[in-house]
Design brief:
Purple Acid Phosphatase, chain A, domain 2, alpha/beta, 13 strands, seven-stranded mixed β-sheet
C-alpha cells in the first residue's frame, strides 16, 4: 500500500476500520440474544410528582421487602435464544437465595399466537419448575397474544387479568394485591380499565404495555406496576431512532424505556424482556429476567 497516493491510503484505512466495526457490531448483535442478565430490582413507594423520574433506592431502607417476585416478559419463544433451562436455573437460584412469593409473566408468548406451540412448551417447563419449588405462576397476555385465551390453563400460568391475588407484606403486614390487565393489541387499541383495589391495600398491577400508565383514570389505585413490551429498543440506535422510526410508543419519547420510574404515585418497572421480535438480534439490550423486591 506504500505505493498508493496518501489520500487513497487514508480512504482504505477508514473503510477498513468501518468494515471491522460493522463486523464487530453484527457479531455482537447476533451474540447478545444468547446472554441472559438476571437483575435485582428494588421498588419503593412513589411520590405524587406528575412527570417521570428514575427511581433510586439510595437513602431508602426497609428490614425486608414486602413482596418478592420473579418477573419476566416478552418471551417471543419462536425467536427466543434463551433456553428454558437457563431461565429455570435463574429462578431456582433466586428462590434458594431468599424465598420467592410468586413468578409473574408479563405477556407476549410468541410473535404469532397461531404458532404458539413452542411458547406453550416453554411456559410448561417454567410451570413445572414453579410447581417443584411450590411457587405460584401468574401471568397476563401481551399484544402478540391476541386471539389466545389463557384462562383455560393452556398457557400453564394462572391468568390474573381482572383478578386479585392477595399476599401479606413480609415487612409491614399490609395486604398486597397482585392484579393484571389484558392487552388489546396494536390495531384498534383499547386501554382497558384498571381493576379496582381497596384503598387500604397495596396494589401491584401487571400490564404488558407501559404506555398504559398514561391512560389511568382518575381514582385508579396503582402503587406498583410491572411491564415489558419495549425490549429496551432491542437494537439501540443513536437518538432512539428505533422508537422514532419503527414504533409509535409514547413513553420512549420521554426517555422512559427500561428500569424503575416514578409517576403520579405509581412506581413502574419496565423489563427488557427475554426474546426477540422479528429478528434474532439485540444490541445494547441484553435479555432480562428480574428478581423484583417490592417494599410496601
Amino acid at each position: 500500500m506504500s505505493g498508493l497516493p496518501a489520500g487513497l491510503q487514508i480512504l482504505i484505512i477508514v473503510l477498513s476500520v468501518l468494515l471491522a466495526a460493522v463486523i464487530f457490531l453484527s457479531v455482537w448483535a447476533l451474540t447478545e440474544p444468547h446472554i441472559l442478565k438476571v437483575t435485582r430490582i428494588k421498588m419503593f413507594p412513589a411520590g405524587k410528582t406528575s412527570g417521570f423520574k428514575k427511581q433510586s433506592p439510595a437513602g431508602t431502607s426497609s428490614a425486608a421487602p414486602g413482596l418478592r417476585l420473579f418477573f419476566f416478559s416478552d418471551l417471543h419463544a419462536d425467536i427466543c435464544l434463551i433456553k428454558p433451562e437457563r431461565l429455570i436455573s435463574a429462578l431456582q437460584e433466586a428462590h434458594a437465595s431468599s424465598p420467592l412469593d410468586a413468578v409473574v409473566f408479563g405477556g407476549d408468548i410468541c410473535n404469532n399466537y397461531q404458532i404458539n406451540e413452542k411458547g406453550l412448551s416453554y411456559l410448561k417447563k417454567i410451570s413445572e419448575a414453579c410447581s417443584g419449588l411450590g411457587i405460584p405462576f401468574y401471568g397476563v397476555t401481551g399484544n402478540h397474544d391476541i386471539g389466545f385465551d389463557p384462562s383455560d390453563g393452556q398457557a400453564f400460568f394462572e391468568c390474573i387479568e381482572n383478578r386479585q391475588i392477595r399476599f401479606i407484606s413480609h415487612s409491614t403486614g399490609k395486604t398486597i394485591v397482585l392484579t393484571g390487565v389484558d392487552d388489546s393489541g396494536r390495531k384498534n387499541r383499547v386501554w382497558y380499565e384498571v381493576p379496582a383495589v381497596p384503598s387500604d391495600c397495596v396494589s401491584v398491577l401487571t400490564i404488558h404495555n407501559p404506555d398504559s400508565i398514561l391512560h389511568f383514570r382518575e381514582g385508579d389505585h396503582v402503587d406498583f406496576m410491572l411491564s415489558g413490551h419495549f425490549h429496551a429498543g432491542q437494537m439501540k440506535l443513536p437518538f432512539r431512532l428505533e422508537f422514532l422510526v419503527l414504533r409509535s410508543d409514547k413513553l420512549p419519547q420521554q426517555n422512559v424505556i427500561e428500569g424503575v420510574f416514578e409517576h403520579n404515585g405509581t412506581t413502574m418497572f419496565i423489563t427488557r424482556g427475554v426474546g426477540c421480535n422479528k429478528l434474532p438480534l439485540r444490541f445494547g439490550a441484553l435479555p432480562e429476567v428480574s428478581v423484583v423486591e417490592i417494599y410496601a
